Amino acid sequence: MTVPGPAITLHVLPPSPPCRTVEAALQLKGLAYEKIDLTPGRHQEVMAEVYGPDRLTVPGLLIDEERVHGSVAILERLEELQPEPALYPPAIAEAVHEAERWGDGRLQDLSRLLPWGSLHFRPESLGTFGGGTALDAAGTDFAIKVIRGTWKYHGLTAQVLYDGLQDLPAILDRIDALAQDGTIGTDHVNAADLQIGASVRTLLTVGDLHPLIEGRAGAEIARRLFPEYPGLVPAGALPEGWVPAR
Ligand SMILES: N[C@@H](CCC(=O)N[C@@H](CS)C(=O)NCC(=O)O)C(=O)O
């Protein structure tokens, strides 16, 4: 059901996990919104113009004239705007806030770094992230340029990628623990489910990570809350021995 209310505009980059988080929250709350897909590379110009010179990343949300920037701030503001269903259920609100902020840290970083890192080894797979098939040779030439540019932008190196992979087991253990204590993974979807679920769903676009992630709480939440999620870098892309054993 759509609840009438203020004019809401969401600025996103399509593959961004925190943008998926915010969009899912808007839908959960039944709030009508317009989504603006920004063009990578030109997004900073728009973000600076709309949200201010220090707010260059997505997501951003306009609520009438009010400018809200960053996924955590946006979810908190949406909770004030439309309290039901609660993103921070009172009985576990503190734990949910803490888990949401934790999810907005290293996990979210890895959800950007690991797919882009893996794409270096299978650039033709970039085509699947737009919902299509693997790219042909000319498309792969273009993808290689895009992936190189993204590595540079994010400061990605083989060592950064390797180190990120080594951080994953402890992060996935923490997600299991959050599910075990009932902070995430229940039928009542909360802010931490959305923040963590979107990042894990993005990690599932890397086939080499499936043995680490599948069958665990994070994968269940991710696939339940974000069923439509294009993109797959097939297993076997990353160099042997880089993905830690489960
Ligand atoms: N932790 C912030 C992350 C914002 C962020 O880094 N967004 C990325 C997309 S996932 C972005 O805007 N990248 C483009 C850029 O850094 O210019 C949030 O959750 O809002």
Main features:
Glutaredoxin, Glutathione_S-Trfase_N, 246 residues, Thioredoxin-like_sf, 2 domains, binds glutathione, alpha+beta, 4-stranded mixed β-sheet
Protein architecture, described:
With 246 residues, the protein is α+β, with helices and mostly antiparallel strands. The chain has 2 domains: 8-81, Glutaredoxin (3-Layer(aba) Sandwich), CATH 3.40.30; 90-225. Helix content is 52%, strand content 7%. The chain has 9 helices and 4 strands. Helix 1 crosses helix 7, helix 4 packs antiparallel against helix 6 (158-180) and helix 4 runs parallel beside helix 7 (191-203). The longest helix has 27 residues, at 93-119. The termini are far apart. Glutathione (GSH) binds at residues 13, 16-18, 44, 56-59, 70-71, 104, 108, 112. Glutathione is lined by residues 13, 16-18, 44, 56-59, 70-71, 104, 108, 112.
The gist of it:
The protein is of the alpha+beta class. The chain is built from nine helices and four strands; from the N terminus they run E-H-E-H-E-E-H-H-H-H-H-H-H.
